[in-house]
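Minutes, project check-in
Item: structure for the 181-residue chain
Input as provided by the requester:
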Amino acid sequence: MTPEPPCGECGFDYEALDPADAPAAIRSFAKRYRAPLSRFLPGEDGDALVRQRPAPDTWSALEYAAHVRDVFGSYDRWVRAILAQDRPTLEGLGPVELAVERGYNAEDPAAVAEALAANADRLAATVEEVPADGWDRVGLRRGEERSVRLHARRAVHEGNHHLLDIGRGMRAVREQRKAAT
């Protein structure tokens, strides 16, 4: 497997993250995602703010948080499967299909934050238990080999990257609301 290149948008460097550091990083997302879903400026309609898309083809803050919740849940299932089976096929819907199927933007922001925290904790605990010889075990996702190491690193990247998306999106929505008044 070839190394993942750094993310061209957020700069995340997969190779710089020691998998042993992934559990703490994953657990940190519980608090880091709760804040934008629950803390607002005085006078803001927080519920409307987290649901508003900054552009038609860009997810809302709530949609991004629900996506990360589901990524953590999927990665936990997949890492467990890879450690228990020889080259399992890693099943699951893609992000767009999940967003539509689950109606991300209609969900309760507090419930999404709680479920994201629970999934993050579960995934972090699973990653903590990976034996030394387990990091390079692989499963197949859409015909591509994906190792336990890659899933741990991708979980941290997804969490970091989508926090940036949420911040940018909420700033854009606030600017749009300000311009409309």
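Outcome recorded: Strands lie at 138-141, 144-147.
No further action items on this chain.
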